[in-house]
């Protein structure tokens, strides 16, 4: 069964998650935006073996530590969708603009597309392309664990920003309603910032995409 531990990183308190298979103890780290020494130590304390980096999108607080972590541990970089290439190319400028430690750009080992899967140990997660916050944003969904790692698409009581370059509000709303809601009301999602919630809770009460809208 899939297990996870969420560790806020960077000054933006971005929810980086270490996910692992409890049979093999192989693990992936989702969105290592920074503080990679903390992430490596957390993996050690959990007793897991980091095998891959999975990215939802390439904003600095989600991807800023990717190049350094991949180089240090020789990890493959999986994702995001190719639509975020320009954000990856801009990581050094993003780090300067937002006062982050220097961030290198990188070439993903594998780009992701809607309908792909990723695997860690015996656990397989489905990939959904959910553009709007960024054009290449993806979400990782484990139907068995009823968990989804949604980056900055959806938050408890809110939705992702669309005022960055190539953001698109209509696309974001469509991604949430057409690709997240079908994962089921009982699915708990881990957002890029803030507390967890469920799709059912947000479908009913979120002021931006709830049923009253």
TrEMBL record:
Cofactor field: Zn(2+)
Family annotation (InterPro entries): MBL_Glyoxalase_II, Metallo-B-lactamas, RibonucZ/Hydroxyglut_hydro
Protein name: MBL fold metallo-hydrolase
Protein species of origin: Hydrogenophaga bisanensis
Keywords: Hydrolase, Metal-binding, Zinc
Ranges of residues in domain Metallo-beta-lactamase: 13-193
Any Pfam family: Lactamase_B
PANTHER family: HYDROXYACYLGLUTATHIONE HYDROLASE GLOC
């Amino acid at each position: 069964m899939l297990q996870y531990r969420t560790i806020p990183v960077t000054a933006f308190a971005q929810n980086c998650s270490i996910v692992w298979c409890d049979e093999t103890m192989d693990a992936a780290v989702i969105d290592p935006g920074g503080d990679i020494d903390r992430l490596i130590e957390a993996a050690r304390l959990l007793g897991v073996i980091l095998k891959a980096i999975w990215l939802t999108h390439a904003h600095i607080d989600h991807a800023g530590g990717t190049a350094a972590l991949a180089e240090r541990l020789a990890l493959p970089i999986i994702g995001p969708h190719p639509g975020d290439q320009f954000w990856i190319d801009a990581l050094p400028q993003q780090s300067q603009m937002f006062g982050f430690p220097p961030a290198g750009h990188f070439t993903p080992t594998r780009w992701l597309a809607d309908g792909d899967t990723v695997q860690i140990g015996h656990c397989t997660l489905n990939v959904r392309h959910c553009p709007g916050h960024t054009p290449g944003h993806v979400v990782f969904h484990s139907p068995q664990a009823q968990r989804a790692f949604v980056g900055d698409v959806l938050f408890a009581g809110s939705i992702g920003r669309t005022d960055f370059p190539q953001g698109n509000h209509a696309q974001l709303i469509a991604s949430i309603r057409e690709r997240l809601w079908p994962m089921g009301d009982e699915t708990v999602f881990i957002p890029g910032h803030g507390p967890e919630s469920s799709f059912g809770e947000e479908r009913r009460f979120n002021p931006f995409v709830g049923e009253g809208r």
